[in-house]
């Protein structure tokens, strides 16, 4: 069976839980109604049958030591008046000789069972006579003449089953109709109750799809839905909030990318067009050199934009993929990557590791990009022949990384703005994109870290200090 075939609606599942037990109970009730009606009809007709037999028994007398009986018409009235049934009777003396009635009427068995309703002297049985099913009542009637001589007569009265069966059928059909209507009414009430109970879900669906078609994402009023659905409404609101954040980040990323990439690409195209108009190799070489530098900066800018997008997305991402990172090793790797650029400008790029492992837990790629942006800023803005020192420390409040240089530094009144995207201390200087410290801030926020900017040694340059929480499990 396919997945679609296995899927059921909530309404269908509720009906599956409610209706089968309801119909099972109805079936049990029908069975007991059948038994009760059959018992009631049997008792009622047996009582009438016994009354007829008693009337006949009361007319039995003893004359000249022989049993005689005059059967009145009233004894056969109860059924004979109904054309659907007939009554038969028989009276035998104590020797088993025929006295009155139908001489071939079946005799009672030797040990006929007593009915639990009429246990004294009377027995009821089902029998067959003239091809018809009968209900027979039999009892022994004692008779005494005037001389005190006594004998016992056997009185049997039989009734065909048509009248009983017709009454039983009539009562059973009426009972089933009433119970059927009751069950159908119950099913209708259950359907209405389920529809009313599921109405909040329909409201949620209409709200969500209506807003989606209208291009809106409005929150659901959790207080307006039942208590059982409020957790779902809150989760939907949280999802809408995360979705809004994702769309905002996407729009911001596209705006940042289009804003920052348009200019270098236009400059590159213009430089290439100009070079194609020249005939001297020196112009071509100069144009290729400019294109290489612009391409390198564009690649760096693209990587920074992707890092920002990943840091934004990481806030919603699962942190199970994080790993324990040794800052000593990671910072050493970053310093080695920038050592060639530092040597090219005669910058003393030094690394001071901590005495032991300094471990944090996080995204290795984002942490690497964050540290690379710090070192890149230090190398980019430091003076030729300057000194840059990168330190790793383990402190009680967390694991620290410091990047200190003796460059121009950042005025104290502007240190709060350098974390804004695309902010530059000197607009139009052509260096950097203004994203470096913004990346550092976003990655630190994702890793629950902090950053501070202070002046370097002797009030010169800039000292950037990062603090990250220590790893919970030290490897």
Write a structural description.
With 475 residues, this protein is of the alpha+beta class. It has three domains: 11-170, Beta-Lactamase (2-Layer Sandwich), CATH 3.30.450; 232-314, Orthogonal Bundle (Helix Hairpins), CATH 1.10.287; 319-468, Heat Shock Protein 90, CATH 3.30.565.10. The chain is built from ten helices and 14 strands. It has helices at 3-6, 10-58, 77-80, 162-214, 230-276, 281-314, 327-337, 339-344, 364-381, 436-446, and strands at 60-63, 66-69, 87-92, 98-101, 123-129, 132-144, 150-160, 323-326, 348-352, 359-362, 387-395, 398-405, 450-455, 462-468. A five-stranded antiparallel β-sheet has the order 4-3-7-6-5. The protein has a five-stranded mixed β-sheet with strand order 9-11-12-14-13. Strand 1 and strand 2 form a beta hairpin. Helix 2 (10-58) runs antiparallel to helix 4 and helix 6 runs parallel beside helix 10 (436-446). The longest helix has 53 residues, at 162-214. The radius of gyration is 52 Å and the shape is rod-shaped. It starts with a helix and ends in a 7-residue tail after the last strand. The mean pLDDT is 79.
Main features:
Heat Shock Protein 90; Beta-Lactamase; 10 helices; 50% helix; alpha+beta; 5-stranded mixed β-sheet; 5-stranded antiparallel β-sheet; Helix Hairpins; 475 residues
């Amino acid at each position: 069976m396919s997945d679609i075939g296995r899927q059921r609606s909530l309404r269908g599942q509720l009906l599956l839980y409610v209706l089968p037990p309801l119909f099972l109970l109805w079936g049990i009730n029908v069975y007991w109604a059948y038994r009760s009606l059959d018992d009631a009809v049997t008792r009622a007709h047996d009582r009438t049958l016994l009354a007829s037999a008693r009337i006949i028994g009361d007319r039995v007398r003893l004359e000249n030591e022989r049993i005689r009986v005059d059967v009145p018409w009233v004894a056969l009235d109860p059924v004979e008046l109904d054309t659907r049934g007939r009554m038969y009777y028989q009276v035998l003396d104590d020797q088993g000789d025929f006295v009155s009635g139908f001489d071939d009427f079946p005799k009672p068995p030797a040990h006929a069972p007593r009915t639990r309703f009429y246990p004294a002297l009377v027995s009821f049985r089902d029998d067959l006579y003239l091809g018809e099913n009968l209900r027979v009542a039999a009892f022994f009637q004692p008779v005494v003449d005037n001389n005190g001589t006594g004998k016992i007569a056997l009185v049997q009265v039989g009734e065909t089953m048509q009248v009983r069966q017709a009454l039983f059928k009539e009562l059973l059909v009426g009972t089933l109709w009433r119970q059927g209507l009751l069950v159908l009414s119950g099913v209708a009430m259950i359907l209405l109750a389920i529809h009313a109970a599921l109405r909040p879900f329909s409201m949620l669906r209409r709200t969500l799809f209506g807003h989606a078609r209208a291009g809106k994402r409005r929150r659901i009023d959790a207080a307006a839905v039942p208590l059982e659905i409020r957790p779902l409404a809150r989760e939907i609101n949280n999802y809408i909030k995360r979705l809004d954040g994702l769309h905002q980040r996407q729009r911001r990323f596209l705006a940042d990318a289009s804003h920052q990439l348009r200019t270098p690409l236009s400059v590159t195209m213009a430089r290439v067009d100009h070079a194609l108009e020249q005939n001297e190799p020196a112009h071509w070489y100069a144009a290729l050199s400019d294109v290489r530098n612009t391409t390198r900066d564009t690649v760096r800018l693209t990587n920074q934009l992707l890092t920002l997008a990943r840091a934004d997305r990481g806030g919603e991402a699962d942190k199970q993929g994080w790993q324990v990172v040794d800052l000593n090793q990671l910072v050493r790797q970053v310093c080695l990557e920038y050592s060639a650029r530092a040597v090219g400008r005669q910058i003393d790029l030094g690394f001071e590791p901590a005495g032991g492992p300094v471990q944090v837990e996080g995204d290795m790629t984002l942490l690497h990009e964050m540290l690379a942006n710090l070192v890149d800023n230090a190398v980019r803005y430091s003076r030729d022949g300057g000194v840059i020192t990168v330190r790793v420390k383990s402190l009680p409040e967390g694991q620290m990384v410091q990047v200190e240089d003796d460059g121009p530094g950042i005025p104290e009144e502007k240190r709060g703005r350098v974390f804004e995207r695309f902010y530059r201390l000197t607009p139009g200087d052509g260096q950097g994109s203004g994203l470096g410290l913004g990346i550092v801030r976003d990655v630190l926020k994702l890793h629950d870290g902090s950053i501070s900017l202070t002046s370097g040694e002797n009030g010169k340059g800039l000292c950037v200090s990062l603090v990250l929480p220590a790893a919970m499990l030290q490897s």
